[in-house]
Design brief:
By secondary structure, the protein is of the alpha+beta class. The chain has two domains: 58-68 and 298-467, v583 domain like (v583 fold, Alpha-Beta Complex), CATH 3.90.1700.10; 70-288, Alpha-Beta Complex (Enterococcus faecalis V583 fold), CATH 3.90.1710. The protein has helices at residues 2-9, 25-29, 58-71, 82-85, 108-120, 127-134, 194-216, 224-232, 243-260, 264-275, 282-293, 356-359, 374-377, 381-391, 418-424, 453-467; strands at 15-17, 34-36, 74-81, 93-96, 140-143, 162-168, 174-178, 222-223, 305-311, 314-319, 322-330, 335-338, 351-352, 395-404, 410-416, 429-435, 443-450. A hairpin with a 2-residue loop joins strand 9 and strand 10. It is globular.
Amino acid sequence: MTKKLNDFFGKPVAVVNIGLASMAQPMRDQAVPVVDLDWQPPKEGVVRLTVTRTGIDIDEANEEAIRKIKAARPVLVGMGKAIDVIPGYHKNLYLHAGPPITWERMCGPTRAAVMGALIYEGRAKDEKEAEKLAASGEIEFAPCHHYHAVGPMAGVVSPSMPVFIVENKTFGNKAYCTQNEGLGKVLRYGGMGEDVYARLKWMENVLYPALDAALRTLPDGIDLKSMIAQALHMGDECHNRNRAATSLFLRAVAPALARTSKDNETLAQVIEFIDKNDHFFLNLSMPAGKAAVEPAEGTPGSTIVTIMARNGTDFGIQLAGLPGKWFTAPAGMVQGLYFPGFSEEDANPDIGDSTMTETAGYGGFAMAAAPAIVKFVGGTPSDAIANTLEMYEITFSEHEAFTIPFLNFRGSPLGMDVRKIMETGILPKINTGISHKKPGIGGIGAGILRAPEACFRDAFEEFRKTFC
């Protein structure tokens, strides 16, 4: 049967099954590749929004928002301390991932990251003192997104932390993100301890100066858009799989590191740190996405999602046509693979700004480009393909710069349209890391989940009431 189908179509055939899994079993029995699509009938009673009451064609507004995103050219142009380069930053400001949240409502990992950052900054001598200071009202907490920044997992940014500066050369806006520490017991996962603080200090005093000096010798910076596009052709999706992208970054920066280094041992340590941390590029792919999408914010009449982020307590989104307004729902639980000794009983709800990658048209939406990611987040290669195919149903366009080899170099799904999400009932599917719910432990695995419906429903209704 397989041979006959292949002969008829002239190439290997895969079947997309949109019904019960049992419906495709005969094909599996005959060795025909089957991709099971998680599908459900369109929702009834959802009003189709086409034109605003002021006459704005919503499709045209979305075309404009997408045009801006596609035209973006995010480039790594330099580095600096957060307090020196992020506009409006001050010594008592500590940024976090996701929508706004108070200290009282913060989850364990975010609280731990805040306390660890206070110790790292020298504002507290131990965890008890840090907790007291964090709860005192002296420290101001704000989302990274409010300061043109993004942060993975807890996403805490403190004044002395070095950040990458990514400039969108097309529109001139900039985005910021800290350096990636690696996996396991690290601050962004809520890890605390002397080893965590020592690593952060090494990153501040050794890694940052080395990278900063190297980047200063590159007048054109490093083109991150091109790098992400290349990585998608090499098996990455640039959210939870960054092995190829990290290698490409190291390849691009290594000559400048060698030319500016005054000590071979320091050079070796810097190269080893980046080489052994496959997630290093995540902290570049995220601000690249932020820089690319931010110009679309404020597009009148657009229903495109421009922010999707989580703080471990709440999941929040924003729309291009309603800039600055958060729509939130409780963060969901991740289904995935756990490190030895941990289980879902230990897991904190979904957390982090890393879904900026999906918002920009790669990450989990481009999982078909990275089938090997299932070894990290769970599932099968066919699940990765099905995930991407499904996301085309809720996105307004396709990103021609980010193409997927397995899908005949089709552009990745781009521009979540809140109208399509409500009409189809299909919720965005993302892959992510998993943090332990208790402060101080850190990362315990990775997995997949769907975004909560409530925030999209509320955004849809607010848009309808405001504009239609």
